[in-house]
Amino acid sequence: MKKIHIYILFGFLIVFFIPACDSFLDEKPFSDITDENMGIEGGKDDTLKYTTAQQAEQLVSAMYNTFGNEYWQLDTYILNDAQSDNAYSGEDNPNRYQIDEFRVENTNQNATRDWKYLYEHIAQTNAILTWVPQIDDPALTDARKNEILGEASYIRALNYFNLVRIYKNVPLITKDIPEVSNENLEEVYPLLYPPQVTPEELYEQIITDLEFALGKVADYSTFKFKITKAVVNLLLAEVYATKDGYDGADWSKVKQYAEAVVNDNRYGLMENYNDLFAIDAEPEENTLPAMDLKYEHNRESLFEVDYNPAPLLGNWGASMFYGIDWKKFNTPSQDLYRAFNTAGDQVRLRTSIKFSDITGKWTDKFWPSNNFPYCYKMRAQQSANIIVYRLPEAILLLADAENETGNISGAQLQLNKIRNRAGLPNTTANTREAMRLAIENEHRLEFAFEGKRWFDLLRRGRALQVMKSCSDHQREYAVRLNENYLVWPIPQGEIDLNANLEQNLGY
Q: Which residues lie across from 354 on neighbouring strands?
């Protein structure tokens, strides 16, 4: 059996992830993998690789376990919070400095590994969508088969949505990669080294996948580490609010899909904002205990990663943002701290930022050592779940849609749900422009350190303006920011492998 170095993975792979280090990706080619070394049986002419219900479920488990990788536990927060006005790089690392300071190089560690992580996830979904329909094991019922296909379609769409927002022009691969032989090389070569497609083509596939998923996934589950209709509807609303720019968005579609989530009375806001992140016991100062969220799988959660103690799917991401053993990622910005105080928002401030005395541990140019801030939404590790999507995203998307279609009072109604839960009075915004800014600011305070801010600024077409007017040192970095640098470069290693790839403008 031949082995070939490619930048996307085929088949499936269960990986136990460890915290990031600069040499991690260089130890072994990421795509050095074959069916043989994964124990997958099948003829060299690519006869059916998977034949049993058990194998189908193994593929699904691998796909879900990938939510434990560095993209989901670490890099999405660096991308969205440290690259925005919410935080800055924190720990002393040139790769993170590049992101924070809008000078990402085509060899940047995060940009390189995130491309690979997202395409690995896509390859897992492609394997499911290619092979599961062909399994005729009676133990795999039609209902379960359809559910699996819907979940894979959603996760493929989610990863392409992230890719198009991070890199803009990327290859679109929707087939499992066959085993390479002399006989099929001409057929397989374009799959191994595909060209980029336009964002419009990517969004067309994303919507096709999501619409398919909506008709297949489970209607509801109390176990939130499962794709259901609510999270599919939410992503459809966000995609329609993003793909054609803010002013060109199809707000009727955004309203349709957001309303489907908001009007589902099986979901609702938790009464106390802090309960979303509370753990079973208060930790000792500067420590991260190993325990569950106090209210995991709560009614506000649409999708959350269900972590278990290592060496299973463990939550190590919490230790990347809190603790005194080394200076952590994503130091909260002065700008965000002022935004909380300006809004009178002490509820979400206390939930989002924890101040500690780190005298003698390290120093920071922008915060005193005796009152140093940490991101505080991840308070436990190993088995503490991370909520990836929750109800307020749908509520605020609905507020956007109401506002953009002329229903100011409807937008106020939705916005006030979020404000009132945080102990704030009703909004005073009463014009379209004022409401736009009010919703944007509410989104920032509601989702600080949940990996949402940069993508929200991009969606609104506001990243340049916001970063250039930031009230602290990040404004100095934004001097070099232009339209080209709103996306990252295509990793040079991928261009070296695939001559069909072209670098993004400005890099």
A: 374
Coil, helix or strand for 381?
strand
C-beta neighbour count of 296 within 10 angstroms: 19
Tokens read off for 159:
């990863």
* The predicted structure's pLDDT at residue 185: 83
Highest-confidence range of 12-21, 67-76, 88-97, 178-187, by mean pLDDT?
Answer: 67-76
> Can you tell me whether residue 124 is helix, strand or coil?
helix
pLDDT the model gives residue 184: 85
Virtual torsion, Cα 198, 200, 202, 206, nearest 10 deg: 180
| Residue 181 to residue 244: CA distance in whole angstroms | 42
Q: Report yes or no: 64 and 148 within 8 Å, Cβ to Cβ.
A: no
Q: 3-state DSSP: the chain helix, strand, coil percent, rounded to 5?
A: 50, 5, 45
* Residue 396, both tokens: 């605020």
Q: Please give the span between the terminal C-alpha atoms of the chain, in angstroms, as a whole number.
A: 39
Which pLDDT tens digit goes with each residue over 121-161? 999 999 999 999 999 999 999 999 999 999 999 999 999 99
- Helix, strand, or coil here: 194? coil
Q: What are the phi and psi torsion angles at 354 (to 5°)?
A: -115, 125
Q: Among 288, 302, 207, which residue's Cα sits nearest to residue 250?
A: 207
What average pLDDT does the segment 286-304 reach?
A: 95
- Compute the Cα dihedral for 157, 452, 428, 271 and give only its sign: positive
Residue matched to tokens 């991840």: 378
Q: Distances in Å between the alpha carbon of 439 and those of 196, 415, 464? A: 34, 7, 18
Nearest to 69 by CA among 129, 128, 9: 9
Classify residue 376 by burial, with Cβ atoms within 10 Å: 0-12, 13-18, 19+: buried
Neighbours of 277 (CB within 10 A): 21
The SS3 assignment for 353 reads: strand
- What angle (nearest 5°) sits at the alpha carbon of residue 197, between those of residues 451 and 172? 70
Structure tokens at 377: 């939404």
Closest CA to 269 of 457, 458, 152, 395: 395
- The DSSP string of 26-51 is GSS-TT---TGGGT----TT---S--
| 416: phi then psi, degrees, rounded to nearest 5 | -70, -25
- For the full predicted model, state whether its pTM sits above 0.85: yes
DSSP secondary structure letter of residue 6:
-
Maximum pairwise Cα distance, the chain: 69
